[in-house]
Design a protein that fits this description.
three-stranded antiparallel beta sheet, alpha/beta, Rossmann fold
């Protein structure tokens, strides 16, 4: 999975480098220096690599959270462990399922702003299942099925068109066949904290998303009173529109 997603990054953002040592670029006065990126279901943390490369080149300290995808508690814990290592103000960002995770984990006092990218944004008592069942039906959501162990996958035949229609076909196909499952326990767990009620919030809406309907994304953003940006991308817009997504995150570093 790691090599596949890095291949996508290479194809779409030739010339960038992987996250490593922070460059000495001077950040805007008062900006949060730290950015923590939380990935969604079915992929790993390298789905954020194109965005991370852009931000790290500009001098931000970027951390990619590796979600176990075994439960909401486990993923929130992984995010909190990442936040515990940050020194100072931090922008917390989530894609897709990662939006549920940052909603629960984002009440950390270090978190200065939240950014949702094509992400679910539950309120207290709501689970991913609640949101998926109450929103407009989508091709991607309809293709999610459990295996015998209760792990959820997107039908590999549907994955390329539903999730990654604007990625190169060979990469979309590889992603479809290399999915990381989301346990049904995570799918059904309600949040009991809504960090977006107390933090400046931003939302990147993907207008061609076939997993989370754009209409649902707009409703999430409106409920949170988030500053919104639209990109004409699929659910994989964090890769395809990495520059636009990175620009929103940079804006969030200045939020007060």
């Amino acid at each position: 999975m790691r090599n596949i997603l890095l291949s996508a990054a290479t194809v779409l953002l030739a010339g960038t480098t992987l996250v490593g040592s922070v460059h000495s670029a001077e950040l805007p006065k008062g900006a949060a220096r730290n950015i923590v990126l939380v990935h969604g279901a079915f992929v790993d943390q390298t789905s954020w690599q194109p965005v991370a490369d852009i931000l790290s080149k500009k001098g931000y300290n970027v951390t990619l959270v590796e979600n176990p995808l075994t439960s909401l508690v486990a993923d929130v814990d992984a995010t909190k462990q990442a936040l515990a290592k940050e020194d100072g103000k931090t922008v917390l960002v989530g894609h897709s399922w990662g939006g549920v995770v940052i909603t629960e984990a984002g009440n950390d006092p270090k978190v200065s702003a939240l950014v949702y990218v094509s992400a679910f944004a539950p309120d207290v008592g709501q689970s991913l299942a609640t949101l998926a069942n109450s929103g407009p039906p989508t091709e991607g959501a309809a293709a999610i099925h459990p295996d015998a162990k209760g792990n959820l996958y997107i039908d590999p035949k549907v994955f390329p068109s539903a999730v990654a229609a604007d990625l190169p076909p060979e990469i979309a196909a590889h992603l479809a066949n290399s999915q990381l499952p989301l346990n049904h326990v995570a799918f059904e767990a309600p949040v009991d904290v809504t960090a977006w009620r107390d933090k400046p919030t931003f939302y990147v809406i993907s207008t061609k998303d076939k997993v989370i309907a754009p209409e649902a994304q707009k409703l999430f953003a409106a409920r949170m009173k988030a500053q919104t940006t639209e990109v004409a991308g699929s659910h994989a817009s964090l890769v395809v529109h990495a520059k636009d997504v990175a620009a929103v995150i940079e804006k969030a570093t200045l939020a007060k």
